[in-house]
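Lab manual, section 2.4: Encoding a predicted structure.

Procedure: take the sequence of the chain (500 residues), apply the prediction step described in section 2.3, and record the output as C-alpha cells. A sample record is shown.
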Amino acid sequence: MSLTLNLKPIQAEEIYSHLLKNSKLEIGGDCMDAVKKCRRFLESEMEKGKVIYGINTGFGYLCDIKIDREKLGQLQENLIRSHACGSGDYVPDEVSRTILLLKIKNLSLGHSGVRAELIQRLCEIYNSGAAPLIYEQGSLGASGDLAPLAHLSLILLGEGKIRWKGEELEGGDFLKRSGIRPLALESKEGLALINGTQFSTGFGLQAMVKSNLYYRLANLCAALSFEAFNCQTGPLDPDIHKIRPHAGQIHSAADVLNWLSGSSLDKREKHSVQDPYSFRCVPQVHGAVFDLIQKVRDTIHTEINSVSDNPLVFPDSGKVLSGGNFHAEPIAFAMDHLALGLCELASISERRVYQLINGHRGLPVCLTPDAGIQSGFMILQYSAAASVSLNKQLATPASVDSIISSMGQEDHVSMAANAATKTYRILNNTFTVLAMEFMTAIQAITISGNDQISPTMKKIVEDYREWVPQLETDRNLSEDVLVTKKFLNQLLLQWSEEPK
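Recorded output:
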C-alpha cells in the first residue's frame, strides 16, 4: 500500500487508514513541480538582495536584524536547535507519525520555499516507520507549533530522539542505522519546518476520526443497555425525530434501532412507562455529538489541506508575503468543542452504568448474585464516575486564554496545542467509560439469561465472552477493563476499514 500526496485535497479518514496500515508515502509529480518552482522563485528574489522575514532576518522580536548570506544555513539550523525546548510526556507514536505526515503534506503544496530534497528526506524518515519523539508541552498555537515541530525537525540534523523498530534512539544513531543521510538546512527551511499547525492538527485528526468511531461505539453500548434494562423503544421511533430533524438525532436513533433489529425487546413485559433520560434521550445527546464531530471534521479537512507556515511564497504572482496562517485559532475552537462532545458521550454512558447496577428491573444489586459479601460492579461505576469528573475538569476551553510572547511581537496566541492535547486525554477517558458500560450491559444481559437480543449483538456478546467471562465472584475488574478495551479496539479497527 502507498499513499501519494498531490495538490488535490485528501480526507482525514484516508490519512488515518494509511497510518494504520503503515503505507509508504510518495510525493506526486504535481507537488514536486510546484515545490521546485517555488524554490527557484525564492532564490531569485534573494539574489536581488531583498530583505525577507525569516529568510535573511532574525525571528519574532529579532525580525529587524539582517543576516549575512553566508550565515543563512546556520540561521536555520540554530532556529531548530533553539526552539527545541518542549517538556512533559512524549506524544503517542500514532500522533507523532500523523504530525510528520501533515508536515510533509503542508510543505509539498508549493508555497513554503523549501527544496525538494528536504521533503524527500522527511519522506524517508516517515517510510522507515519511525516516530520522532516530540514533547506534549511547549506550543502556544501561534507562530506555529514551534517547540514540538522543532523536536521533529532535529532528526534531519542527526539530533533529537526517535522511536524506531521498538527502540528509542538518538537522531544520529537512527540515521546511520536506517541509511538516511543528515541534511544541512538552507534559507527558509528551518522556519518552514517549525512554522505551522501540524502538531495541533495531528492530534486533532486522530481525535476527530476516533471520536467518530467512539460515537458509533456509544450507540452500540446504548443498544446493549436498552436490552439489559428492558427499555421502551418508542423514543427511537423515526416519527419523533422527523419533527425535530437534527441530522445527528435522526442518525443516532436509526443506528441504535439498527443494533436492536431482530430483538424481542418490544415484546417483553415492561416495568415502567418511561425510561430514565440516559436511555430515553440517547438520540438527542449522541446525535448532538455526531453533529459536532461533523463540524470539527470540516475544520480538520480544511487545515490538513492548507499551507500554514510563514512567510508564504507565491511564484505565479511574484510575491513573498508575511501573514498569520500559522495562527491555530480554528483548531483551538474545534478541539475545545470536540472536548465538550466527548465529555457528554462519557457522561451519559456512566449514567447508564449507574442505572444498571442499582438493582432495578429484576437485575441484582451491583450485578452480583451475592451482594454484600461481594461488591460486584459497584466500584466499576465509581471508576467511571471519576473519569467523567476528570473530563469535566479538562474541558475548560483553552482557546479563551492567551499569553503575550516574543517581547510583544506575538501578543495574541490560540493555545491550540493545549486544546488538542487535553482533548486527546478526554478522548481516551471516554473510551474507558464506554468500555465499562459495554462490560456492565453484557454482565446484566448474561445474568438475565435473555438470549432474545438482536442477532448482531448476540454474536458480539458471544465473541466477547471468549475474552472476558461472566463475573460470578469478585475479581480484579481493572484487568477486565483492559481486556475489554483490547476487544473493542479490534471491533473499531474493523469499522474503520469498512467502505465509506
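Check your result against the sample. The chain has a mean pLDDT of 95.
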